[in-house]
Amino acid sequence: MEDFFQWFRWLYDETGINLTILYDSFDRERMVRGFFNTIYLSLICLALSVVIGLVGAWLQGSPLKWTRRIVQGYIQLFRNTPPLVQMYFFFFALGSLMPRMENEYGIMEPVLSNWHWAIISLSFFAGAFNVEIFRSGIEAVPRSTVEAAESLGYTRLKTYIYVVLPLAFRVCLPALNNNLVNLVKTTTLAYAIAVPEMLYVANQIWSDSVNVPEMMTFLLLAYVVLVGLLVHVMNRWERAMRLPGYGV
Amino acid sequence: MIHTALKRFGCAVATAAVLATGTVTGASADVLDKVMERGTLVVGVKADYKPYGFLNPDGDIVGIEPDLAQDVADTLGVELELVPVVASNRMQFLDQGKIDLMIATMTDRPDRRKVVNILNPDYYSSGTNIIARKSAEFDEWEDLEGVPVCGIQGAFYNRKTQREFGAKIVGFTGTSEALNALQQGRCAAFVYDDSFLASRLQEAEWSEYNMPLQTIDDAPWGLAVKHGEERFARFMSGMVVKWHVDGRIVELEKEYGIKPTPFTQRMHELFSGFVPKEEG
């Protein structure tokens, strides 16, 4: 294995293509960590944003006026502000107002870390779009189907879970795919609040070794692979959920 | 020995500078021609690095490096345009021609010389240190083992601080973010250039903090131009020699309220010794 890595050192000497992330163990380790951090951040935010979308879409159909208004307010706030601005706002403005706890170095540190804020900000950002995406699916479910469920004695929540959502899901999956792909790409913004994901690590490596083109290419390919995987999984899911005769 | 070498070098540079400016209407259009033609010199400087390059309350970039850039523009008789740069993009900006000249607190290192033309002689020097709360009581670099330390993304000493001393680097995009994070308690210390940290510690806001460690990696800073721009490079080397001769940089350090570094004083003494004073 080590020979394989050292071949890239030779490649650098011979051609000037400097892939330190392969032959330098320090760079390699931090890039591997960065890669997994990106996956970790993406998975958590994907899951949370879908949950937020489902809950939000349900609350949006609430008979209570104020519940609907609050959901609408949340969507407006998060959909109309750039995610980078949200990230800075959460971490530097809200973060400093959090209660503080003494950490192991004897410093009074605010309770939520940069990781927490990145997860909160990204999940709510993508969640706001997901609410609207789920609403589009829910509105596509025929009123008569809902009435049929009601006449069978389903409550609003039960109708939502057993009748409306399964149908709505199938309608809105393509739009949901798009938004989730966007979410994975948006995780790069967490570099601004020092979450060590791939862009953060790549930035430090290309500053140390002045190998910008190589690292840029690597980043691009890494995201193509990551997002490709996500799209593949989502497409399989879409196929598995297909109902003959329903939708396209 | 060094003195004679410098003397010879200085004379060569001075001659070269004169030649360079004398032949502005040369054959091929290089960056110097372009600057003269458009009447504007575009210089990349830092905008978050008090007092070397920072924003004043009006939003203009001011500081020691913008003043040096102004000297260059005045010497050429053109207007000056300042472009704010950061560590991770300054060499790319120069390479892409977005800026003609870079005066951006850049440490002169061999691998960077491959990418851009770092001029001789160097104009400044600084090393790496940290600021931390006085209560943290760091005595040596090894005390940073496992400690979260704020830094700037792209700074070269992040690697060393992380690799050799075991600190956990928390890198931000600019100094204001990193300093804010330090004040918030996100990290125990902030690792950066000692020159910058020293100027910050003079402010009342930072009275609870100190610079407790021995400065490491004291290294010179270089101006840079794009590779291949030989005429402009010779001219700029001449400018740097002139600043050392005049003691211009020492003067600027005093003007911006920092203690003159040993490097600038030594350069001023070395260079001022051999250039004959203008008669009457």
UniProtKB/TrEMBL annotation, chain B:
Keyword Plastid listed: no
Keyword Transmembrane helix: no
SUPFAM superfamilies named among the record's database cross-references: Periplasmic binding protein-like II
GO biological process: amino acid transport
Signal peptide as annotated in the record: 1-29
InterPro entries: Bact_solute-bind_prot3 (IPR051455), Solute-binding_3/MltF_N (IPR001638)
All residue ranges annotated as the Solute-binding protein family 3/N-terminal domain in the record: 40-260
Protein's recorded name: ABC transporter substrate-binding protein
Alphabetic keyword roster: Signal, Transport
Coiled coil segments of this chain: none
GO cellular component labels: extracellular region; outer membrane-bounded periplasmic space
Family to which the UniProt record says this protein belongs: Belongs to the bacterial solute-binding protein 3 family.
Lineage of source species: Bacteria, Pseudomonadati, Pseudomonadota, Alphaproteobacteria, Rhodospirillales
Highest rank taxon of the organism: Bacteria
